[in-house]
Amino acid sequence: YELSEDDLSALNAEPEPLVEEALPTLAIIGRPNVGKSTLVNRIIGKRLAVVEDRPGVTRDRVNYPAEWAGRDFMLLDTGGWEKNVTGIDLSVAQAAEAAIDLADAIIFVVDATVGATATDEQVVRLLRKADKPVVLAANKVDGPQGELEAAALWNLGLGEPYPVSALHGRGTGDLLDAAMAALPAEMPEVEVVEGAPRRMALVGRPNVGKSQLLNKLAGENRVVVHDLAGTTRDPVDENVEIDGQPFVLVDTAGIRRRVHQTKGADFYASLRTQTAIERAEIALVLMDASVPLTEQDTRVISQVTEAGRAMVLVFNKWDLVGEDERFLLERSVDTDLVQLTWAPRVNLSALTGWHTNRLMPAVNLALSSWDQRISTGRLNSFLGELVAEHPHPVRSGKQPKILFGTQASTRPPRFVLFASGFLEPTYRRFIERRLRETFGFEGTPIQISVRVRE
Ligand code: GDP
Ligand code: GDP
After folding, report:
1. What average pLDDT is seen over the chain?
2. Which atom of ligand 1 is closest in space to residue 40's alpha carbon?
């Protein structure tokens, strides 16, 4: 049994919670058949997880938004990990270690009817080393007669075993209460509200045409979103509608108010740019196409990519570029921005309005890339093929292997690869290039981190 493309797109069509990366992660770990998936299903209400008895089924998603007692969190389901994910084998210990790495708290599930096995002991050692909060679930305690077997699991040294029946729901409330108490109290919030207008920043060095473009985009009907505390005449953000689509333009006050060339103005402008980028989901980086790129331009671009925001590169003042210069200009920009082939480029004139209609398609493309999630199943078949075709070069007799990968978050897309050895930078860049070729990601930086497993 294999998931078809339709199955995959149906699974991927599940609406993503927009504050996902800010939610704490609770991982459910344990060896096969202890009842992890049954527990996951109980927690998320059988909506998404697929319990499949047939062996070799690749479970497509592993990260589910969940809620208990008014608390939102992400539930990391490792149920499918040790099963076959396209040629990549993960031992119970490897799966557990990977999950422990990604989690803020852990529910360790043991089958109370079997008792602690050597594999369970192995996981306990990993848990001790990791020093993350653990709640011990003694599963398959379907009735009071099983309580004694559950109590025997005190021996694992992980504190109180919670006797539960994932199948019938017995005791799962107490277990989840304990798990909620184990989760960190607060996570840094990313201010993204479902259905709210996307937040956009117009950035670039002075005189590239930010005010001009702002006037073009915002038009006459602009609405002030909120006032900076104490300075009621200094509207910071504006609600605008561009091509019928609502946006919040971040820190338009900083654009409208001309920064005078006083001492420290550069520093102030750069700080203000940084803040605007951090408060936005997407940054339009404006450059003046009529003059060569400056170091200041590339610095703004780095600020955006380092902040992990979606990005569109806008070459303004195109009306000043002669017909015969255009081709050469494009080529020199290609050379200057060779590391940024992933960012959409729009040539326009804020003055005449030429090609300003090309802005929104680029913005929407970049935002959807920023939001994009590659399911664990797809990612691992991609990795499996890539590794089979282009294995990591052998170095001093060793060949690092990629064991498993998962997209840990979106906005921007962050990938975590678990490998048996250090992956060379060129090989990581190769993986990023292939990820982009295969899945798009135009307009968003992507982050890849590698965890090495001995
Ligand atoms: P996983 O491999 O850890 O994800 O385990 P599953 O959730 O697939 O469960 C393995 C088997 O144990 C299935 O046949 C479940 O129906 C069964 N099972 C899970 N939880 C319970 C429980 O609380 N009581 C009983 N009696 N059986 C359970
Ligand atoms: P800011 O400092 O980035 O906000 O830049 P401004 O919007 O104030 O523009 C700086 C100067 O460039 C002004 O004189 C604008 O009229 C001019 N300008 C802006 N956009 C264009 C354009 O598309 N074409 C031309 N020719 N001039 C422009």
Report:
1. 81
2. 7
In whole angstroms, give the CA distance from residue 75 to residue 104.
Answer: 10
Q: Which atom of ligand 2 is nearest to the CA of 349?
A: 23
CA dist list (Å): 320 to 290, 298, 347:
6, 21, 11
- pLDDT tens for 21-56 read 457 889 999 988 999 989 988 888 754 444 333 333
Ligand 2 centroid – CA 208 distance (Å): 6
How close are the terminal C-alpha atoms of the chain, in Å? Answer: 32
Mean pLDDT calculated for residue range 349-355: 94
What is the per-residue pLDDT across 233-282, written as a single tens digit (0 to 9) for each?
A: 445 788 888 888 889 898 777 777 655 544 455 655 676 787 788 889 99
Q: What is the pTM of this model?
A: 0.63
Here the ipTM equals 0.60
What 3-state DSSP class applies to 10? helix
| Residues contacting 359, CB < 8 A, separation 6+ | 217, 242, 284, 312, 314, 346, 348
* pLDDT score, position 187: 52
**Mutate-to-test residue for ligand 1 from 52, 167, 170, highest number of ligand atoms within 8 A of CB:** 167
Residue 30 counted as an annotated binding residue: yes
**57 SS3 class:** coil
Instruction: Choose which residue among 29, 31, 36, 38 to substitute to test ligand 1 binding: the one with the highest number of ligand atoms within 8 A of its C-beta.
Output: 38
Q: State the closest ligand 2 atom to the C-alpha of 352, by its place in the atom list counted from 1.
A: 23
Position 342: which residue type?
W
* pLDDT recorded at residue 47: 46
Residue 325, classed as helix, strand or coil, is: helix
Looking at per-residue confidence, does 159 or 94 come out higher? 159
Cα separation values, 221 from 96, 214, 224, 242, 308, Å: 55, 12, 10, 11, 31
Q: Would you say 127 and 175 are in contact if contact means Cβ atoms under 8 Å apart?
A: no
Residue 210 annotated as part of some ligand binding site? yes
**Residue 364 corresponds to which amino acid?**
N
Q: Is 254 near ligand 2, meaning CB less than 6 Å away? A: no
C-alpha closest to that of 293 among 350, 343, 332:
332
Q: Which residues pair with 287 in a beta bridge?
A: 315
Distance 416 CA to ligand 1 centre (A): 29
Work out whether strand 345-347 and strand 223-227 pair parallel, antiparallel, or are unpaired: unpaired
Dihedral angle, C-alpha 78, 79, 82, 86, nearest 10 °: -90
Which segment of 46-50, 142-146, 364-368 scores lowest on mean pLDDT? 46-50
- Residue of 101 and 190 predicted with greater confidence: 101
Closest ligand (CA of 203): 2
The average pLDDT across 211-219 equals: 85
